[in-house]
Structure formats: structure tokens, C-alpha cells
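task queued by scheduler; priority normal; single chain, no ligands, no partner chains; default sampling; output format set to C-alpha cells
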Amino acid sequence: MAYETIEFKADGPVARVTLNRPDRLNSFTVRMHEELRDALSNLGDARVIVLTGAGRGFCAGQDLNDRAVAPGKTVDLGETVTQSWNPLVRTLTSLPQPIIARVNGVAAGAGANIALACDIVVAAKSAKFIQSFSAIGLIPDSGGTWVLPRLVGQARALGLALTGEPLPAETAADWGLIWKAVEDDMLDSEVDGIADKLASLPPLGLAAIKEMIRSSWQYSLDEELERQAGAMRRLGFTHDYREGVAAFLEKRQPTFTGR
């Protein structure tokens, strides 16, 4: 597929996806959803994914102009969510590769929740997260009503969702909504450093960490302990585990192959 609304590079261990409609703050159209879906299904040998936005913003969510709704007519928003946003959130959370959201500016509406669907969120200090749904009579979709109370608690989740008040990146980090807020001119080096580190680690172990933590909400402690035993048993038989231990004992750099 020839991409018009995103930029995509996946020719090494780090795949980079850039939402590329800067004149519209990288808001989503049907075309962007299609292109992003295609890119995320063609990651090659990438072990880490970096998702970001072009220009001064990360993503402003849905481009309302894309609906072309004539006066007096309605649009089925449930269909839009079911066909586009829900599959995207499920893809981001279920891919085995760790996904880093590089939040370079405003992340609003579904754009904020797409960032929060990523595994590690690093934001420039000038960035803001905005749950802008209440201003137009909607609810935080794209996982918003699920992830917000789990990350920051019910009181803060309700405050963010009801008021739509912009949340500065530094406060988001203090609240535990995101991993880290850094100076704007340090954003690239911070994200690249994390991506390079993750790309050097055993991919099977990283995939297991992501899956275990993301699915742990549905299990009791006893059930999770049993799941941990099963995961450790499986990973303990991998080549990468043997290589990691050998490299540690031999005081050398390990080479992980994903086996």
C-alpha cells in the first residue's frame, strides 16, 4: 500500500510509524486507519515499534470533517468505533512487540487514548493529554473509560473525562498516566535510547511481560502465580534464556535471536 497519511519505516529492529497529517494535528480519517492497519501488519523483523505524530501534535483523535455529515443527518458512531478504533486498540495491546508512544505535542480525544494503549509513553514536557469527548456529548472511547481509572484512579479519571481539562505531560507522569515526561529537546534521544535497549533484549521475554501484565486484571493472585510458573517454565527452555545466563557468567554481551 502506498501511504498518504502516515510515514512508515521497518527495515531494522525498530519500526517507526509517524501519523502524518500535521495540518489537521494528525487526526484520523478512514484512510489513516487503513494505512496504519497495513503498516502494523507488515513489521518485518522489528522488535520494537515507535508511534509518533508529525509536526506540533501527536494526534487530535477523529477528524470530524472526514465524516462529511450533512445538516440534519446522523452518523453511527458505534460503527466507527467498532470498525476502526477498537481494532486499532486491540492491535496495539496485543502485538508481541513493545510499542513506545513518542508524544511530541497535544494528544486529544481518541488520540490521547491511542497513546495510552501503547506500552511505554514518553512525552515532551510541552505536550498535553486531553479527554475532549464531553464537550461534544460523547464518552472517552478507544479504551479511555477502561484505562483511565486503572492508571490514575476513579477520582482523577472522572475529573479528566467530565471536564476535558488539559493534563500537562509532567502531571501525567506524576500521576502514573505515562512513563516519563522529558524536556522537548531530549524527546528523541530518550525515545531512541529506550527503543534501542528494548531491541537488544530477548523478544520472547518482552512479549511475555507485555501479555502477562496486560491480561493480569482478569485473574486472582493465585491464578496469576500459576500463570507465572507456566511462563517461567516455557521461557526457561528458550535459547535466549540460556544465552543470557551464559553471557552473564562469561561477562560478555549477549546475542538474542528470539528462540
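post-processing summary
- Residues 133 and 139 are 6 Å apart (CA to CA).
- The first helix runs from residue 30 to 40.
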